[in-house]
Structure formats: structure tokens, C-alpha cells
Task: inverse folding
């Protein structure tokens, strides 16, 4: 080699040298970056990861605020879960059943709380904390956060559906919206005024929300003893309440009252129908109010539309009997396998503080679970219907609280969909059979 | 006289030579086989690790009643899961839906794909690369993305199909028939290019002299197609059919995105997904997966035995 380099002059080693240097430089750069990254993570501050459902940035802001308030005790970062509740549940279950230590905090859809608690995925809350997070909180949220007489998660925000209506339609139909109205009255008014009733009839969780609200409003319950062993769980749809619920669903959806696309309609499709020319009534979550306002601001909707929109507590299924509106929202759970249980519990109390809930309600449009938040001036200003929401939340009924909620919901979606072809005489019994069979492992879903 | 005496001796000598040649040949064959194993060995081991192991695990899991959220209640149930599945109409419904989608899409794709392959085959040289790229674009799109595109196109609120054809409030995803039509259309649009590429390879294998001979004999285009082209590319057609049938039978994305299994559009792999991933019933879900696997094996075996498809012909050996 030496002879060659001397023979060919000094040119040979030069290209060889640069050749060797490039990988060395890359290696150095990678190592350097690694060291720098490690520096950032390793200053001794525990980092808590909060798995959140997608929102408009409110949870990330709260994470930052609580990080600041912790004054170096811990840091909260957020990690976004899939869009729909089922996807969120699937991801969390997959991780937690593999004992993922990286899940410190999680935003949970209420129906899945019993399943998570029963599987031991949620860190037990100390007694005084159980009391703290459920004091001055709307009733439905407390029920939703409780499993086998223990509070297993902290109510963070609580959702409920309202009945939205167009004043022009109700006035023309002579419907007094100051008093509670029934589904039958709405159907009659809509038929009379050739207006639509926007509901959620797609084969998804939102449809089950509607079914449950109707059954509960009619005084029934989908699962009679949710805490029973799987072999003994009894479904209760084959009852007067179940038949009433099925009849209302059929009456609303058949005959085009709920729009042509009702069998695939979700919340957004319902909102679109309500905003349309034939809009009359709609049951939907309060987020629509912010969406209406944004529509007016963006020029897609008329200012007059916003003035025409009215709201009331959910319609009654049986005249004179208080309605049981849907309950939704988010409960905050602490992962059972967290490396920082004390910090995570502390962060939990910070996140669910009433003033944080009030600010979150204003920024993201999601109603607070804390009663105190509704006294907030800004909340009252942004949500003219705040009192209706609070009233609705106090009488709302959670969906069946069973570790087999997925099976219950799936069975209902299969036996009660499409809503347009629902037979009130057979659908309740069919659903009962399927729910029982599936939970006992005798049938597929 | 000398020749007759010589002949057997020469014959014997030739015999010996042939034997020696045979020995040499078999030694060479052995060496070749060894080399073959050495070359294919790593791939074979990898395949065992990533395919055989998960399949064996699924078969084992399918014999248990096991729910991810109650790991303590894991219980050996033997073949009960299979009994539950095979006596449930949900399974048979999914099988029928899957078969319907498979038969319809593969049949349409074969005809369309063949036409496209002919166009590509006959196109002038300068046009051919552009044509091939254009035809391949749908195949390059991720299935989930194309499923969303088709769903948006046919959606009742934001879709343009209803507006274009003046269909007003037609809810395409509201009933079984129309949902299946859209699912099949999307599937056909997306995978016809694959079919046509495989068929194009077959077309290229048809000897040009046979075509010319037929032409000289006065055969019409149609006669040449049926008597020369298609018989000569039978192997390629069968391989294309086999691949597409296996693919189509495992359809998942389109159904998942467009209907979520509503209105009876659930397919077998979607059923497996829901038992395993949504319900976290690992045992039951594994049993569905094993049955799906058996269906696929049956289809493959049926093709290979029934139509005498020789997979080696796909690479041009004759």
C-alpha cells in the first residue's frame, strides 16, 4: 500500500479518508443526539403520560398548567388516543393487558370503566381521594365513576344530550317548549310541519346511547344486575320499557322523518340535517352550540339560524315520567402499572379541579362534571343553556355498567340496526337472547 | 463381422460413460441442492418464525376460553370454540358475504384486467411506460385511503356521486345490496391493476411465431385469442386467479371503513378482528382466524389440484 501511494502520488489516500470520515461523522452525530435527548429526560423529574381522547387542545393545556403547578415534582405529557371510543378502549386494553408502565393517566369513556376496574387496570383510589373527586359533582358522573361501591375514576367532564329545536317549527306546531315534551309530541309536530328529527341511527355507539336513553326514560334498564357473574347476567329489554323504546325509534326513523341517511347518521350527520332547510328537532351533545356559532362566524350559517335554535331537556318517553338523558363525558383513571402512583394521583386531583373544568368547558365546549363550574361567569356567558345542561346531567342515566359493556353494545347494534326496520314486538327479545348468549360465550358477536 | 462384434463392446463402453456421467450429474445435483438450501435456508427459518409460529400459537389459543380482561379465568375448552362458531349463523353469513365479494370482484377483475393487459401489450412502445404507470396508480394507493375515498364519494352528505347522477338522498351504505356494490367497486378499482400485470406477464409468454402461424392460416382475431393466446397463457391466468382469490377472500379494509360490518356486510376477517381485537376474546377470535386460514388453504389446494396450476410456471419455466 505504501509503495502504491508513493507511486500514484498523494491522491490515493485522500478519497479513502473522506470515505471513512462520513460514517464516523454520522455515528458521532447520532450518538451526540442520543446524549442530548437523554439529558432532556434524565433530570430526575418523573414524566407522567396522560392518554387523552382527541379534543381541541384543552387537555394538553391542562397538562401544561398542572406541570407548572407541580413546581418540578412531575411533568405531564399527553398522548392522543384514536378518535372513536371503541378505538380508545382497544388501544388502552391492549397496552394495559401487557402491563404497560407508560400509562400513568387516561381519559376514559364512562361505559368502559367497570371493565377496566374489574380487570385491575385502574389504580385503586385512597378513601379520602374517592370522596374528594366526587364531592359537588353531578349525580350521573358519580354513578358512572363507581364500580362495586368504590369510586375508581375521577369525573373530569360530563356530557349529556339536549333536545335542540327550531323555534319557528315549534311555534308553528303550537308546541310549548317551556314544559317537558314527549317523543310522540315531537313526532306529531315534525309530521305536521314537514320538519325532520335528527337522531343518531348509524350502527355505532351513538345509536346505543339513544336506545339506552329511551329504555331508561321508559323506566327500564338494559341489564338488570350489571354486577352479576357472566352466567347470571339478565338483559331486560323484553319489557314494556323495551317495547316503548323500540316503537319510538321506529316511529322516528321510518317514513323519512329522520332524514334519508338515518341508518348511517352520527352526531355530525344529525347536526347537518338540523342545520338544513327542513331542520326541526335534534337530540345531540352540547358541542353543537359551539359548532353552530363557528358556522355563523365562517359564513356557512345565517345569524337568524342561531336565533331560531332553542334547547330543552331530553324528551320524555312516557308522558309525565322524567326523562333519563344520555350520560357521557370523560372520567380520569390512573394506570395500575404506573411507576409514579403518588405523582399520578396528585396530577389527577389537579386536572379535575373545578376551575380547570370550567376553563375546559369554555375552551373546548365539553360540560363540566363539577356543579361549581356552572356558577362560573364565563361558562354562563358562553353557554346560555348551561342550566339546562346541569339539570340534564342531574337526571341522566349511564349506560349499563357491566364489564361486558362491549358485548351489550355490540348485541344491541346488531339486533336493533337498522332502526328503520325495527319491529317493537320482536327486537327486544332478540336483543335479550343475543346479549345473554354472547356473554355466556355461546354465540358469536 | 467386425462391426457386429464391436458393437456390444462399444455399447458397454458407452454404458460406463453414461453411468459416470450420471454419477457426476447426481453429485452436481446434490451440490446444487445443498447450495439451494443454503440460499433459501435463512428465508425458510424466517418464514417459520414469522408464519408457522404465529399459526401454531393461534391454533393453541383457539382451544382455550380466554378473555384478555379476565386473564385468571383462562380455561381449556378443547374444540368448543369451533362448535360455537360453526353452529352460529353469523359465521355462515360472513362466509357467504365473503364468497359473494370474492366471486364478483375476481370475475370482473379477470375480464377488466385482461382487457387492460391487452391494451398494455399492444400499445406503442413510447406509450407503454406511461400507460403501465397510469394503470398501476390505484394499486399503489393504500387500501384504507382508497376505501375512504370511495366512502366519501358515495356518502349521503358530502358525496358527489348522488349529485352527479341526480340520486338525491340515496343512502348507499344503508342497505346490503348497495353497500356491497360500493365495496366491490372499490375493491375492483384497486386490484384490477394487479391482475392485469400478472396477465401481461402471461401475454408476453405467448410465442409470437404461433400467432403468426395462426394468422397465415387465416385465423380471425377471436379464433387466435381462444385457440392460441388463452391456452398458452393458462398458467398465468390461473396464478393470477389464485392470488386474487386468496386476497379477495381476506378482504377487510373496505368493509371496516365503509360499513363497519353493518347491514350484513361483515366478512370473515372482519369477524375475526371483532372477536379478537374488539371483544378481546382471544380464544374465540383465534378459532375464527384458524377457520379463515383453513378456508384459504382449501382455496389454494382447490386451485392447485382442481385446475392443475403449477406455480413454477409463473416464472416462465416450461
Result:
Amino acid at each position: 500500500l505504501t509503495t502504491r501511494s508513493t507511486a500514484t502520488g498523494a491522491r490515493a489516500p485522500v478519497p479513502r479518508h473522506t470515505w471513512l470520515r462520513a460514517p464516523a461523522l454520522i455515528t458521532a452525530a447520532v450518538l451526540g443526539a442520543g446524549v442530548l435527548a437523554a439529558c432532556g429526560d434524565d433530570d430526575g423529574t418523573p414524566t407522567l403520560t396522560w392518554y387523552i381522547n382527541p379534543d381541541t387542545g384543552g387537555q394538553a393545556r391542562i397538562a401544561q398548567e398542572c406541570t407548572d403547578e407541580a413546581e418540578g415534582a412531575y411533568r405531564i405529557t399527553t398522548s392522543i388516543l384514536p378518535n372513536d371510543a371503541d378505538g380508545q378502549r382497544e388501544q388502552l386494553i391492549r397496552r394495559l393487558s401487557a402491563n404497560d408502565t407508560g400509562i400513568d393517566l387516561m381519559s376514559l369513556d364512562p361505559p368502559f370503566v367497570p371493565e377496566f376496574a374489574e380487570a385491575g387496570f385502574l389504580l385503586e383510589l385512597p378513601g379520602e381521594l374517592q370522596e374528594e373527586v366526587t364531592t359537588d359533582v353531578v349525580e350521573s358522573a358519580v354513578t358512572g365513576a363507581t364500580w362495586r361501591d368504590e369510586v375508581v375514576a375521577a369525573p373530569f367532564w360530563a356530557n349529556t344530550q339536549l333536545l335542540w329545536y327550531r323555534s319557528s317549527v315549534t311555534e308553528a306546531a303550537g308546541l310549548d317548549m317551556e314544559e317537558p315534551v314527549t317523543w310522540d309530541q315531537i313526532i306529531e309536530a315534525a309530521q305536521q310541519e314537514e320538519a325532520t328529527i335528527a337522531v343518531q341511527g348509524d350502527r355505532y355507539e351513538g345509536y346505543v346511547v339513544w336506545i339506552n336513553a329511551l329504555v331508561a326514560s321508559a323506566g327500564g334498564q338494559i341489564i338488570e344486575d350489571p354486577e352479576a357473574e357472566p352466567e347470571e347476567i339478565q338483559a331486560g329489554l323484553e319489557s314494556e320499557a323495551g317495547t316503548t323504546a323500540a316503537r319510538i325509534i321506529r316511529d322516528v326513523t321510518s317514513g323519512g322523518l329522520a332524514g334519508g341517511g338515518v341508518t348511517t347518521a352520527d352526531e355530525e350527520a344529525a347536526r347537518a340535517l338540523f342545520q338544513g332547510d327542513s331542520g326541526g328537532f335534534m337530540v345531540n351533545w352540547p358541542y353543537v352550540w359551539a359548532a353552530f356559532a363557528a358556522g355563523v362566524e365562517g359564513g356557512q350559517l345565517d345569524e337568524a339560524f342561531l336565533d331560531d335554535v332553542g334547547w330543552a331537556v331530553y324528551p320524555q318517553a312516557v308522558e309525565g315520567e322524567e326523562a333519563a338523558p344520555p350520560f357521557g363525558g370523560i372520567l380520569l383513571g390512573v394506570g395500575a402499572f404506573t411507576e409514579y402512583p403518588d405523582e399520578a394521583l396528585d396530577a389527577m386531583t389537579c386536572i379535575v379541579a373545578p376551575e380547570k373544568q370550567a376553563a375546559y368547558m369554555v375552551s373546548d365546549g365539553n360540560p363540566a362534571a363539577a356543579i361549581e363550574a356552572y356558577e362560573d361567569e364565563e361558562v354562563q356567558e358562553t353557554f346560555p343553556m348551561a342550566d339546562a345542561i346541569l339539570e340534564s346531567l342531574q337526571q341522566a342515566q349511564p349506560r349499563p355498567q357491566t364489564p361486558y359493556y362491549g358485548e351489550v353494545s355490540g348485541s344491541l347494534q346488531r339486533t336493533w340496526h337498522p332502526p328503520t326496520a325495527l319491529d317493537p314486538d320482536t327486537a327486544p327479545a332478540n336483543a335479550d337472547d343475543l346479549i345473554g348468549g354472547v356473554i355466556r360465550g355461546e354465540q358469536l358477536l | 463381422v467386425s462391426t457386429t462384434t464391436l458393437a456390444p463392446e462399444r455399447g458397454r463402453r458407452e454404458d460406463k460413460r453414461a453411468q459416470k456421467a450420471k454419477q457426476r450429474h447426481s453429485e452436481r445435483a446434490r451440490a446444487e441442492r445443498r447450495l439451494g438450501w443454503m440460499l433459501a435456508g435463512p428465508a425458510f427459518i424466517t418464514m417459520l418464525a414469522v408464519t408457522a409460529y404465529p399459526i401454531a400459537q393461534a391454533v393453541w389459543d383457539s382451544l382455550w376460553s380466554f378473555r384478555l380482561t379476565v386473564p385468571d379465568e383462562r380455561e381449556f375448552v378443547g374444540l368448543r370454540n369451533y362448535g360455537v362458531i360453526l353452529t352460529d349463523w353469523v359465521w355462515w353469513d360472513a362466509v357467504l358475504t365473503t364468497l359473494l365479494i370474492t366471486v364478483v370482484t375476481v370475475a370482473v377483475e379477470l375480464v377488466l384486467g385482461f382487457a387492460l393487459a391487452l391494451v398494455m401489450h399492444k400499445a406503442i412502445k413510447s406509450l407503454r411506460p406511461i400507460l403501465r404507470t397510469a394503470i398501476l396508480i390505484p394499486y399503489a394507493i393504500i387500501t384504507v385511503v382508497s376505501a375512504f375515498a370511495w366512502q366519501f364519494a358515495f356518502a349521503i352528505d358530502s358525496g358527489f356521486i348522488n349529485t352527479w347522477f341526480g340520486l338525491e338522498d340515496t343512502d348507499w351504505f344503508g342497505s346490503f345490496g348497495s353497500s356491497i356494490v360500493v365495496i366491490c367497486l372499490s375493491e375492483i378499482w384497486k386490484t384490477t391493476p394487479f391482475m392485469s400485470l400478472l396477465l401481461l406477464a402471461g401475454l408476453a409468454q405467448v410465442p409470437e411465431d404461433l400467432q403468426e402461424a395462426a394468422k397465415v392460416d387465416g385465423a380471425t382475431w377471436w379464433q387466435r385469442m381462444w385457440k392460441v393466446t388463452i391456452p398458452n397463457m393458462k398458467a398465468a391466468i390461473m396464478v393470477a386467479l389464485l392470488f386474487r382469490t386468496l386476497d379477495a377472500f381476506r378482504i377487510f379494509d373496505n368493509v371496516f371503513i365503509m360499513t363497519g360490518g353493518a347491514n350484513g356486510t361483515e366478512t370473515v376477517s372482519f369477524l375475526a378482528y371483532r372477536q379478537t381485537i374488539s371483544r378481546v376474546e382471544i380464544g374465540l377470535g383465534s378459532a375464527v382466524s384458524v377457520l379463515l386460514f383453513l378456508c384459504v388453504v382449501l382455496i389454494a389446494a382447490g386451485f392447485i389440484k382442481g385446475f392443475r396450476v403449477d406455480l413454477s410456471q409463473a416464472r416462465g419455466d416450461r
The radius of gyration of chain A is 27 Å. The first helix of chain A runs from residue 2 to 7. The CA atoms of residues 325 and 396 of chain A lie 5 Å apart.
